[in-house]
User: What shape does this take?
Amino acid sequence: MSDTRFSKNILCIGAGYVGGPTMAVIAAKCPQYKVTVVDINAARIDAWNSDNLPIYEPGLLDVVKQARGRNLFFSTDIDAAIREAQIIFVSVNTPTKTFGEGAGKAADLQYWELTARNIVKVATSDKIIIEKSTLPVKTAEAMGRILNANEKGIKFEVLSNPEFLAEGTAVSDLEKPDRVLIGSQLTPEGIKARDEVVEIYANWVPDEKILTSNIWSSELSKLVANAFLAQRISSINSISALCEKTDANVSEVSRAIGMDTRIGNKFLSSSVGFGGSCFQKDILNLVYICQSYGLSEVADYWERVVLMNEYQKRRFVQNMLKVMFNTVAGKKIALFGFAFKADTGDTRESPAIDVAKQLLEEHAKVVITDPQALNNAKIDLAAYADKIEFIEDPYEAAKGAHAIAVMTEWKEYKALDYKRIFSGMERPSFVFDGRNILNHEELFNIGFNVFPLGQPNHKHF
Ligand SMILES: NC(=O)c1ccc[n+]([C@@H]2O[C@H](COP(=O)([O-])OP(=O)(O)OC[C@H]3O[C@@H](n4cnc5c(N)ncnc54)[C@H](O)[C@@H]3O)[C@@H](O)[C@H]2O)c1
Assistant: This one.
């Protein structure tokens, strides 16, 4: 039975990086709705019910505290929550398939399908089901079939409402989105369901930013948005390699091209590579879909974006090796940052994982420091635990090191006392700035040999 104290009962299945923040913002903005978030992971739900949230996101705890216990609830009682809800967002994980047909590229839809089957099993009334997870185009068709093949006479309308938030800025992205996209079938039932979801967002998002579209465009737009964003990073990273050969400076090239309003200045910073749970998996998913429709040229085109990213990570370590006299065996190397980007503790697909593994293969002694991601780093590198040190304090991490490699653009790293760091390091001392965030000239003057990405290096020998 629905909770009649509220005008809508909204449920989100999956309390992860997307489900948690998205629902917290809906609940904070709309006290008239009851918002419940459920997950099979009880520890995660416990954490959402504490002040020690399971994910780090600036401003998130304040938003959660504003609504938790009032109209925002975190629970493991999935079935009761399904029965109560009129609108269900599904935000479970959709990783790359690791087995069988499409392994390594296609999306693994098992969590989504299990969720859909459970909804059918326990539901006792009609519901709107919203794809919040990123899914292959045409998934809604399959889900609609599974959901509506019930003998209880219950009707499910499947909508697509992909999430465009970026980790690290999730709260502000949700409070002030560039746009909200809601895709539906263009039948009268589809449009009615779509309007109900538009009504939720209209509580705080201006009308002109709420886009509606056909359901396939909505599903595909999310994959395409991530493919375009990742493509910009791979594009500028490809140019960083050319800059290093030609004495051009990739930051200057970025600035010059980014001021062209047709290009724009975002996502044009060269780095050791993109990471995060989405870019690679979503592009590979796009590649797989193109291949399955026989569009091999289109598939190859997008696959290059991922291959360029692999190249950039490899190139970074190869350069370290070359510069450090072709061996890092036995040398201590401090990785500054492990999160895939600043302001998050998320390390999924972080380039630092590959860099650490490659350095270990070269028998380097790896030390990892990060203000938010050390716990995740320990999980990612559990198989190498005896070969790596995890140290919270960057000064301690750099003690006795031959090199520092900046992996994450944490602003803390710009403000460190590098004279103090230099005094405790081995000579010659190296800095490899995989994010181009440090003051290279200042570091050179202290005595470091500095190797940025795509920029002339500063060395004393
Ligand atoms: N992380 C991002 O920045 C981001 C941004 C936009 C879209 N997305 C997409 O959103 C989706 C979720 O991503 P995420 O980063 O939040 O993942 P996540 O792994 O952090 O969270 C998913 C949660 O779903 C739970 N879950 C899995 N199966 C379940 C089931 N049957 N019942 C209940 N809970 C279940 C898991 O325990 C987990 O807590 C993915 O499709 C992703 O591509 C992610």
Q: What stands out?
A: The first strand starts at residue 8 and ends at 13. The chain has a mean pLDDT of 97. Residues 13-19, 38-41, 44, 78, 91-94, 111, 114-115, 133-134, 163, 165, 167, 277-278 surround nicotinamide-adenine-dinucleotide (CB under 6 Å). The chain has 17 helices and 14 strands.
